[in-house]
Amino acid sequence: MSTKPVDMEESPNVIERSLAPLTAHNEFVLEVTNFSVDYGVGDNMVRAVNDVTLNLSRSKVLGIAGESGSGKSTLVYAMTRLLRAPGVISGGNVVLNITSDVEGEGAASVNLVTASEKELRKVRWSHVSIVLQSALSALNPVLRIGREFDEVLKTHRSKMTKSERHARAVELLKMVGLNEDRLFRFPHELSGGQRQRVMIAIALALDPELVIMDEPTTALDVVTQREIINELNVLRSRFGFAMIFITHDLSLLVELADEIIVMYAGAIVERAGASELYGSPRHPYTLGLLNSFPPLHGARSELVGIPGSPPDLANLPEGCSFAPRCPYVMDRCRRDAPPLMNLSGSDRSVACWLHADDASAPVPVELARRVAATAPGVTALKDRK
Amino acid sequence: MSDRVNSPVQLSARHLSRHFVSRVPGRFLNAKHVVRAVDDVSLDLVQGHVTAVVGESGSGKSVLARMLARIIAPTSGELVLEGTPIHVGAKRTLDYASKVQLVLQDPFASTNPVHRVRHSLERPLLIHGASKSDVEALAKAALTRVSLDPPDRYLDRYPHELSGGQLQRVSIARALCVQPDVLLADEPISMLDVSVRLGILNLLKGLCDDEHLAILYITHDIASARYLADEIIVMYAGQVVERSRGTALVDEPTHPYTQLLIASVPDPSDPTSQSSQKIERTTFAVAEVGCRFAPRCPSAMEICRTTDPPNFEVGEGHLSRCWLYAGRPEAVVEVALPERRREGESTKT
What we know:
The complex is a heterodimer.
Chain A: E1 28-39, E2 46-57, E3 61-65, H1 72-79, E4 87-98, E5 108-111, H2 117-123, E6 128-131, H3 135-138, H4 145-156, H5 162-175, H6 192-203, E7 210-214, H7 222-239, E8 242-247, H8 250-256, E9 259-264, E10 267-273, H9 274-279, H10 284-290, H11 331-335, E11 341-342, E12 349-350, H12 376-384
Parallel strand pairs in A: 3-8, 3-9, 6-7, 7-8
Antiparallel strand pairs in A: 1-2, 1-4, 4-5, 9-10, 10-12, 11-12
Chain B: E1 9-23, E2 32-46, E3 50-54, H1 61-68, E4 76-81, E5 84-86, H2 94-99, E6 100-103, H3 107-110, H4 117-127, H5 135-145, H6 152-155, H7 164-176, E7 182-186, H8 194-211, E8 214-219, H9 222-228, E9 231-236, E10 239-245, H10 248-251, H11 256-264, H12 272-275, H13 302-306, E11 311-315, E12 318-320, E13 330-331, H14 333-343
Parallel strand pairs in B: 3-8, 3-9, 6-7, 7-8
Antiparallel strand pairs in B: 1-2, 1-4, 4-5, 9-10, 10-12, 11-12, 11-13
Helix pairs in contact in B: 4-5, 4-7, 5-7
């Protein structure tokens, strides 16, 4: 593992290592600090995840939004140590706080970055599971669905008998709304939505505390997506697992997540509660993303979205990586990269010089809105959960 | 927006159908199953207007686009290009290809990875009879039309050196360089990053408004159809279930399927969109008799299971294929639409 220092600017506004005081040890299921991931080493090194710090509370949903190449998938693969070479974790810690499980292990904190394979095996699936984007390539095409369940349970719950395993598989399928005859089907016999449901059922097989969803609905059409999201909400209220949900669809996240992180070029550019982010974005990129979705209501007007192209990680500009596409760019943005700053009077943070305490210009009005009254639905939804 | 009355219909489809025959797995010999991928679809692509076709995967919208591009031959029905009926059984001619061009969903799959952008643009030009001395200038002009400026920077790049948005612009430029009248765009933005999608949509809108192309925009994203289109058509299981001029279909959806589609779109600004509507789980059965949506329809009636509904007129130029509107006048699509379009002109802004 390379020991390249993680450069973080020392400014009074720089966000503290943990976003909340670490009073209760188990308050967070996952604590990520100053986490960086590179692809390759030496001259060809590309930093895909740059100094990410985040905490995830128990039973909460963290949404990660960003376009392709923003490092959102790399982040979760590296966090769970699933990332393969040439991906290298180049700094930081990922601490998973686990509670006792059925195998009789007590509560513990595991640093996933330094954990051995043996320790990882204990944690994976039992405590952290992952649902991948393409269920067709994640499920083995020559195995019946039942075998997939059987193998997980055999490996991790060695005391279960064959009939117990079968009963558990049936129970899991019922949970996601599939008939038990699906156990005898091959993946190609199921539709895209059914396959994704199977993936979710397998991920929940060992009752994990944290489920990571990497664009689980991107390949599905909108009606199936809605069904799966509803399903997830029901399952979450029943089992109380925490969830990291990755997608490029910000409006989906606003509905689903408690807190949203927006990533751009490998770094967090904004972190806020879902309704705050929707009602009052603070980073120009977040505003651009929200404006990129044509509305379903109201007058039709020309939308502009975000000009330019997504960044090339091997060739990032000096200063803020969003500066070349930013409509509010200032001289300072081209010189210095903004750190993730806590906004005064709130628990949200943003990496933009517009919001620095010593900013020369006032914050543009569209980035300074209070939480708008346009998002009552979001809070209503949260209550429903 | 240009004047609808004087805008000629560039390409129309009349009762276009495509059926695929497949064997039924596990049954013996003659057991065959006919999939009606596209069933009796009529539409007009008008100069300077965008027609959007919305539907979920498997609704037949891509097959429809390929039939309009004459890559797939229809089982029945006819195509009329600029007033001239086309014999659909005949091979696609160069002349047809120079007037109707197709842009595909995934730009990385639809451009040749071992050739430079130059090759992708110059090859169609040469095939369509441009002289070798002109092709470079024409290719550059095509790149400029899709806002890839300066064109020299892109001409000698390989596809992997460009971002998805840039490459989709290249494939639109490739379609444009033979100066077509009709552009068929099959999900042109669904593979692209959110931040560049609007750029492509605005590009299509510009081509339609400024260069008066007739554009068919195929999508599963009903919000983008509303943003772009002058006429929206919703397809379900190969049939047109609802169509309207302007945004009437999105603002006041009448067909239960359209209502389901719209309710499924994540929309944080509308609290009623998710909480009040309980959506039934998808059953993938498509009814063989009666309304095809009946097995999934929350308001299915007895008649829906036995008789296929005709199109009922639920508003000005707004047709719904649903028995719920049986009191309204029946409309016959292919005769009615061009006529109505003229009458309705005054109401549309």
